[in-house]
Design a protein that fits this description.
The complex is a heterodimer of chains A (286) and B (432). Chain A has one domain: Up-down Bundle (Fumarate Reductase Cytochrome B subunit), CATH 1.20.950. The relative contact order of chain A is 0.16. Chain A starts with 14 loop residues before the first strand and ends with a helix. With 286 residues, chain A is mainly α. Chain B has 432 residues and is mainly α. The longest helix of chain B is centred in the last third of the chain and has 41 residues. Chain B starts with a helix and ends in a 5-residue tail after the last helix. The chains are: A mainly alpha (286), B mainly alpha (432).
Chain lengths: 286, 432
């Protein structure tokens, strides 16, 4: 079969499992809530832009926007605590704690990640071979920890702004000003990283262009794994565990849905970044 | 229609004694007229014999003129001039038939003050000039002069805008007298009036006590706004609006920062004078103060002078939502009051630290002492006054810029490396 649109489905099979159903559901919650938050939040930051007014009217006014923003915040706290809860359960259940935290399936940054960053820059300048990654590379880990940091910082400041009267029992009123600054700029950082860097790293760079749906279907071809996660592939082969990781190909419907939603999400994200850049060019950074 | 018939019936009743006296004579014909004329005392009865008889007037003049000459008793007796005789307004010899033209009517004989007022008005000056502007009869009518509290009168409050609009909404008049750019407002004034809160009260609520043209511009002494004598000139307009808005005038004059500055005539460094009523409320586009258009507009208005707090307001949630075009969040007047704005150092000010809890509680019912330490005009760019905001801003911005720059560079270098490799592969014949 010719190269398919999604990089996760290109080349020779069979398919290998990469993400569990829970991980995919949580990621879907991230996508939905994050778009909801960005669409209803960014207009406040750039309220002087014509598109900000249009966007707020589109979602039904600022009160509707506020409601959507809070619903998406609840979804965010939801996936955050589901993940933390599940992680705690897995930590408790794991028999090999050292491997759990420092092994290839862990999100904890290890010495190899720092070597990889160094080697990656060497490769950029033609001073060495391209680093080879295991299951999670340093970019995946940064996305993951960025999410942790982002939810804590944006979520925390957001709660202060959501319940000002409650928080005024312990915080002075000017903390609402501080919370507004933190909330806005950190949200902009999250938006900027996700809609440019994350999109580039996992979808738009030439090796993966235009889209990678492994996070939607949960599986990718063996060729994809050899290219993107060679160390994991070699490790699994060595351990003879490839067989147990083999997944049935995604159904045609699942594939089409994944690609469509992936491309829609990418376009929407890039559009929003365009609007932000437009506002920055016009209004400066304040 | 019914109203008019009732009026006519009333007129006829009051005419009855006259008719009875008249009836004892020979009858309503020329000989009776002659008898009356001989008495040398022009009266409503004597003139009315001819001028009240349409049949008599037929063929005596052009049809329009005939109509004007027809002044029946019933018409006159229904007006405010019911106690006057014809000769009170039309003096001079009008003996017998036919008689020549009578001397010009001088309303000022009785209405002396109105005459004096009118003579200094723009209308009088224009009448001398070219004659389009109204004289007494243009607004009050000739024989059908009703009181201003008579629904039928063109000068009845509900009819005034239409009356003035006869000229001030007439394209010919506007084209002739209001063609310069400075007179742009005059061109649409009457039209706009119908959309203002005053006009809507008249047109839709039928509210006869709502302000109409002459309430602000005066009835007879209509002066251009530039004239210091004008009721709508900046120095007088506060009093003019205060005729009706008594409470607001009191608040404004007794201690508000604007009222104080208005009284002492101080200017801002930019040269702005303190706002008088019309500066915030405008003259002919006055809208009700709870309309979204108003709320969003008022911030712009205040911002003309209060530039720095205007800008910092938009860095708060209140300002952002306002800028998005919604009226629900706090605007200037919500915290500083519309007419009783005072400096925060004034104990009576709504933004005095001791009053802030009450002020914020208008929207945030559970506001407390901590809550009101919010910087309603916090400015992260002002390191002196808001150091904590400045440093928070700087920290977050540094974080954003450094993280994004690092990964932006990372992606850019990645793309560059892939491009180089692609070129090399092509060069060595391994291209795809």
């Amino acid at each position: 079969m010719a190269r398919r649109l999604a990089s996760s489905d290109r080349g020779a099979g069979p398919y290998i499992w990469r993400f569990s159903p829970l991980e995919r559901v949580l990621h879907a919650m991230v996508i939905v809530s994050f778009f909801g938050l960005v669409i209803t939040g960014t207009p406040l930051l750039y309220s002087h832009m014509p598109w900000a007014r249009a966007l707020i009217r589109l979602v039904g006014g600022f009160q509707a926007a506020g409601l959507i923003h809070r619903i998406c915040a609840v979804i965010t706290f939801g996936y955050f605590f589901i993940h933390v809860g599940h992680l705690t359960y897995r930590i408790a259940k794991s028999t090999d704690k050292k491997r759990f935290f420092w092994g290839p399936d862990s999100m904890v940054a290890g010495p190899k990640d720092f070597q990889d960053i160094r080697d990656m820059f060497k490769w950029f300048f033609g001073k060495g071979p391209r680093p080879r990654f295991d299951r999670f590379n340093y970019m995946d880990k940064l996305d993951y920890w960025g999410e942790f940091w982002g939810v804590a910082v944006i979520g925390g400041s957001g709660l202060v702004l959501w319940f000002p009267v409650f928080f005024s029992r312990i915080l002075p009123g000017w903390m609402f000003n501080v919370a507004t600054i933190i909330h806005g700029i950190e949200a902009l950082l999250a938006t900027g990283i996700i809609f440019t860097i994350h999109f580039f790293n996992v979808n738009l760079r030439p090796e993966k262009f235009p889209v990678d749906v492994v996070m939607f279907t949960g599986r990718a071809t063996l060729d994809y794994m050899k290219e993107e996660h060679p160390l994991q592939y070699e490790r699994l082969s060595r351990e003879g565990r490839i067989e147990e990781m083999i997944a049935p190909p995604p159904s045609r419907a699942a594939y089409l849905w994944s690609v469509s939603l992936g491309l829609i999400g990418l376009s929407l994200g890039i559009l929003l970044i365009g609007l932000i850049i437009w506002a920055l060019i016009q209004g400066g950074w304040r | 229609m019914r109203e008019r018939e009732r009026g006519r019936a009333r007129a006829l009743r009051s005419l009855l004694p006259v008719v009875l006296v008249f009836g004892l004579g020979v009858g309503p014909d020329a000989s009776a007229a002659a008898a009356q004329v001989e008495s040398q005392e022009p009266s409503i009865v004597t003139c009315g014999v001819c001028h009240g008889d349409p049949d008599f007037l037929v063929g005596k003049a052009t049809p329009e003129r005939e109509n004007a000459l027809l002044v029946s008793d019933s018409i006159l007796l229904d007006t405010v001039h019911r106690d006057l005789n014809c000769a009170d307004c039309h003096p001079g010899p009008a003996v017998g038939y036919p008689h020549g033209p009578l001397a010009a009517v001088s309303c000022g004989t009785c209405h002396e003050l109105e005459q004096i007022d009118w003579e200094v008005s723009v209308h009088a000056l224009n009448v001398i000039d070219s004659g389009d502007a109204p004289t007494c009869v243009s607004c009050h009518g000739t024989h059908t002069v009703y009181g201003i509290d008579d629904r039928r009168s063109p000068t009845y409050p509900l009819n005034v805008a239409t009356l003035c609009g006869r000229c001030h909404a007439d394209p010919r008049i506007i084209g002739t007298y209001f063609s310069s750019p400075e007179e742009a407002q005059a061109r649409v004034a009457v039209e706009q009036y119908h959309e203002t809160v005053h006009g809507v009260a008249v047109d839709e609520a039928g509210l006869a006590i709502s302000a109409t043209c002459n309430d602000c511009h005066e009835s007879h002494r209509v002066l251009p706004v530039e004239s210091p004598e004008s009721s709508v000139n900046r120095v007088n307009v506060v009093k003019t609006c205060g005729i009706c808005h008594v409470g607001v005038l009191e608040t404004y004059e007794e201690g508000s920062a604007h009222g104080e500055a208005y009284r002492t005539d101080v200017r801002t460094p930019e040269g702005y004078l303190a706002p008088a009523c019309v500066d915030c409320h405008s003259a002919h586009s006055i809208v009700e103060a709870d309309e979204p258009k108003w709320f969003v507009g008022i911030v712009e208005e205040c911002g003309k002078c209060h530039q720095d707090v205007y800008e910092t307001y938009f860095s708060t949630y209140h300002g952002q939502v306002t800028q998005l075009g919604f009226e629900l969040t706090a605007k200037c007047s919500d915290c500083h009051t519309p007419h009783n704005m005072r400096p925060a150092t004034d104990l009576e000010s709504t933004v005095h630290p001791l009053n802030l809890v009450a002020t914020c509680a208008k929207c945030h019912p559970e506001a407390n002492q901590n809550f009101v330490r919010y910087y309603a005009h916090g400015d992260a760019g002002d390191r002196e006054r808001y150091p904590v905001l400045f440093w928070s801003w700087l920290f977050m911005t540094t974080l954003l810029v450094s993280v994004w720059s690092f990964f932006g560079l990372h992606s850019a270098l990645w793309l560059g490396r892939l491009a180089i490799e692609r070129v090399r592969r092509r060069g060595s014949g391994h291209g795809t």
